[in-house]
Amino acid sequence: MTVGTVHVLDLESGNLQSLSNALTKLGYEVKWIKKPSDGLDTAEILLFPGVGNFGHVVTELRNRGFVEPLRAYIASGRPIMGICVGLQALFSGSTESPGVKGLGLIPADVQKFNNSTKSVPHIGWNSALVTNVADEGLYGLRADSKYYYVHSYRADAAVPLREGWTVAIGNYNGEEFVGAMCKDNVFATQFHPEKSGVAGLQVIRAFLQGHRISKVPGLQTDILKRNMGLTKRVIACLDVRTNDDGDLVVTKGDQYDVREKGTAKDVGGKVRNLGKPVEVAERYYLQGADEVTFLNITSFRNCPLVDTPMLEILKKTSETVFVPLTIGGGIRDVVDPDGTKISALEVASLYFRSGADKVSIGSDAVLAAEQFYARGEELSGDTPLETISRAYGAQAVVVSVDPKRVYVTSKDSTNHHVIKTAYPGPNGEEYVWYQCTIKGGRELRDLDVWQLVTAVEKMGAGEILLNCIDKDGTNSGFDLELINDVKSAVKIPVIASSGAGNPEHFLDVFEKTNTDAALGAGMFHRNEYKVADVKNYLSEHGLLVRNDSQ
Ligand code: 1PR
Question: Which residue has the higher pLDDT, 214 or 186?
Answer without folding.
Answer: 186
